[in-house]
Amino acid sequence: MKRRWAFQIAAFIVVGVSLAIIYLYLWDRRAEPPIQLGILFAKTGLLADLEAPLVEAVLLAVDEINSQGGVLGRKILPIVVDTASDDARAAELVRQLITENGVSGIVGCVTSSCRKAVRPIVEELNGALFYPLFYEGLEASPNILYVGGAPNQQILPGVQWAHRFLGDRMYIVGSDYVFPRVAGEIVKDRLRDFGIEVLGEEYFKLGHADFDAVAARIKASEPSVVLSMIVGGSNKWFFRALHEAGIDLNATPVMSFANLLGTKMSLKNRELVSGAYLVANYFSQVNNARNRAFREAFLARTGGRVTPTDPVASAYTATRLWALGVTYSGSEAAPDVLAALRNIVVAAPEGTIRVDPENGHLWKRARIGRVGSSGVEIVWESSLLVPPVPYPRSRTKEAWDELLTTLHETWGGAWAPSTRENQK
Amino acid sequence: VLIAVAGVAISTAATLRTSQDALEAAMFGKLTAVRALKAQQIEDYFSLISSQAKTLSRDTMIVNVIQEFGAGAESLIRDERTLSDKNDDVLRRYYIEHFIPRLLHDDSAKKDLEAYLPTDLVATSLQKIFIADNPYDVGTKDFLTRAPGESDYASTHEIYHPIFREFIDQFGYYDLFLIDTDGTIIYSVFKEVDFGTSLLTGPHKDTNFAAVFRTAIQASEPGEVFFSDFEPYAPSYHAPAAFVVSPVFKDGRKLGALALQFPIDRINAIMTNNYDWRSVGLGETGETYLVGSDFKIRNQSRFLSEAPEVFLPKIMAIENTRDYAQRILEQNSTIGLMPVRTQGVDAALRGEIGTEVFPDYRNVPVLSAFQPVNLPGLNWVIISQIDEGEAFLPIYQLQQYAFIIAGVLSLIVLAVATVTARSITNPLALLVGFSKELSGVDFRKDDTQDLVHEIEPVASRGDEVGDLARAFSNLAKNLQSSVRNLIDTETDKERMAGELSIASNIQMSMLPLNFPRFPEHKDIDVWAQLHPAREIGGDFYDFFFLDDHRFGFVVADVSGKGVPAALLMAVTKTLLKTNAQDSTTTAVVIDRINNELSENNDDCMFVTVFFAILDLTTGTMTYTNAGHNPPLLMRGSGEIVALTGVHGPMVGVVGGIEYEQAEVQLNVDDKLIVFTDGVTEAFNLEGEAFGDDRLSALLERSGQLGTKFLVNAVVDEVNVFAGDAEQSDDITVFCLRYLRWEERPDVARTNLQLKNELAEIERALQAFDAFVQRANLSAETRNDVSLVLDDLLNNIVNYAFEDEGEHVIKVSFRTDEHWLIITASDDGVEFDPFLRAAKPNLQRDIDEREIGGLGIHLIENMMDGHTYQRVGGRNVVTLMKRLNQ
User: Fold this and answer.
1) Alpha carbons A173 and A229: distance in angstroms, whole number
2) Are B737 and B525 in contact (CB under 8 A)?
3) In chain A, whose CA is at the least distance from the CA of B407?
4) Residue whose C-alpha is closest to residue A196's, from A159, A154, A222
């Protein structure tokens, strides 16, 4: 019967078309190979405590991006490797990540010595390193994006603010390795512009614990502010010595340039720090929508134990920037990614930032916080984005390079005097 | 067969259509509410800026400073040291190293050094000293307070710079400028490269700043305020900047102008709701934005902010916006860059207000609500929108299910037909009839039970036809239950409930919710509760001090419920509070809001209002009842009196009515209970109303309770009474208890009458010193208040009077144990020196806070309260300072 056939044909067509649609739909959603991102921090060894939160920040960004569909329609595959706090090993790992894994970029290194060890490898293999720490400057590599602050974005604004609002009698203390040494030179150059010589300048081996003598000297010289580049656990002993010497931080403030907040301190020791000024580009108190979301997500991820600090926020931003570079260039090749990021302006937890078109650093706001009983209060922030100047203008590039070479040679080809592992 | 299939299709389509209309109406209602809210916030922000500029430009200090800076700048160029050739190089190097590289513009033509480098002497000298030779880095140039050298300019700068710096910090401006009549910027806090240049002849003479200055300097009256729109501004490195300029006069002579550069951040924060669109009910794709007459958006686009990788390709695909994508990408900003030329923008620029569906700037169809914004000198419009895809998502889901069901149904019909073709007749005819009828069923209302009954005989057959019939009856049942489910859950209820709860939060935030509100006033005690019947309602109450002893309060009920009522409520509340500030009687206030509300009241909505002003010193309460339930007055003795007088019809129906008012004397411990008809007309399940008698009985029983417990008792009783019955109307209960002012007698009091001469100020200050002695006040109080008083009187003497005649300024000081209260009144031009909107209070470093002459600034910092009133043709300013015992 004719009609019957007509119905059957219609039914077949309906079923056929449905199958075709389902097939096309599934085909469109087929899995693409993931894009790989190297994550290079210490999970063991001396620096593990300090660097662990940065790994979490990177993974947080990766998870967020993946949950929104990844980049270029592909998932990000994070490859986390452990430097074991060893610079030579870090260099080896970078070679592996680039040549064997074929990562598109690497977020990693905390210490300057790690960065300096890794740099030749990244340059040789034309990779991309996203370095998340504020540092002493005097560097610019075409293969590195310096996501942390340059000296003129933390050190110099801090010194100028101290000069304007705290007074001009200054005393410098720091740990003895490349960051504080260079920072000390930059500070002294700046103060000379104001016609000021520092009252004292002292550096101590990493992990040094006996600060009684220097506390006494500080007290005797009556500075209006102590500029501190002491890093890590030594801070605990330093602040205790100041306290025992009867130095009241409200009258003689300490301004710390070295991420005091990343240092593990007991509650009692935190009280000793109350009244100190901190210089950074990011504090968890920064008030904007991006940071609220970031802070919440990060706290949730770490079980509320770890408050994000400047380097943690930079590690997160670094990862976001890398993903943006991939998206905008449409390529996972390291040079394309870096090129696509030039001159880009993005909203980060610390606020709006801009990637400098020339020197591979970021434009960012400088901030000064004060430790109070209920956490850090931001007392000043720059009204404009501060453009990065990796080589401070007080000396020529050659003069700065010479300073580095001299330090390097003095320390026997290392970036800190021997007897202890390099930090920062 | 065809008829059956068509029937299914038609019934499905009809259901979809009705749900779609309902959803669309609800969505437009919500968009309109958000749009109105945001427009109000933007207008408030501009009026705040405007009043600050106005106040500052008339401030005595500004007038003096502009002259001092002007004279200083002139003497500076006579200083030989600044004239050597070397200067030019220093400055040139600054421009090359620090300015040009920071320009956001890619166009190399805009990076021409010579176009920016100033040539005249004032500019080069000032810029050399305060920019190029300034030892602080770019961005911290404002740290320099004392410039080297002994010039007059440097000394003036040292005194006033910290004050101005503090001012812009506190109020969130980018910069403050003083400009002389030649257009020369003789002072700027941040000292960008426009500092020292002339806006009439210098390198920045073609900017929006220069244009608005040229207009402002033509003004003939002090206190006029002119706004520029946002435009890329070279000295701000081509970031969009906007300015407000107000001319400065002294004794009728024009001295120049004051300008403030105001930030786009605040506007952006308002429009993007701090990058939190969801909490104002804008879902996943909704946003609000401003568009200027240049068709460029004035705030950040949600789509760029949330998903740039989706947004940018989208706008690159549109011909008109393609060219802008690159700069939007590079600046990560749509502000002043993204072109928006949609139907809605065109209509709103023509002055229309409306709602419509059309493609937006991404070429995505949206539901949009648009209106012009009322801003001084700016032709902006505001849009709120949400993607059609999201708004109608429930419909689309319903549609999908419906198509699947309809498809399955049709297939079965086909199958049935096939079977029919094989074994002819009766049972099948019955099934065909069934399917026909099924197609006519409106699943929302009718039941398929009867239909299923009809085919029961066939369904009981054991053969295929029986199977088919059973399948049919199951199908009918399933179809009905799934369609009902979908309609119930997916459409209105769940979504609207979530969104309305947001609206409800917004609305409740407009009511004063924290009690007690006036801890320092021992003479008054208020408490109130409001329970909307739906998520949002039309009841409201409000209360506020008109000055130190007059307390105004209002309870009102807007006709209707839901979103429209809530909007009218917001409008009424605002109108009432605004008008109450400068009217003297309750009748006049109600007259005015009645006129304003009835003017554009096409929907014939109305408000019943009970508004009263209580004089705390005497206990006299003046009130006007416009169609509201009579409030109950509980005397201290326990007697309950209803204030039955009604002084006019409900507000908003007919304009031009003159309302009356009545007075009643309150005694100590008297309580006034004001409520809305939601209380007396609360129904229980039996349909009984709560009624006046139950209320009176309750009050008699609970007469000894304080305001809080009394209000709670009434609300609880109504809830218990109503039981499980649905609340039919909003319930509001407000209670005020009066305690006597005389409990705090004046410790000291002085009244003065001054002539409008500057010499009289000294007399007032001496009188104040004597008063301080007598009242035994602290030296700190004396110093603070003297400063404020000096500035206040200076401003009155200098600016209040337009003619040269003699006027009397009345000043009084009085104090009780807790407060020092100063009143100054003059019969000059009507002028409110205070800013009505709330101000940000940024905590800043104390070292920076210096004592200075910015009158309002001083008052806000040093006094604990202030009011302004226009009473009997006089400006009355009352200042209050809390005394520490």
Assistant:
1) 6
2) yes
3) A14
4) A159
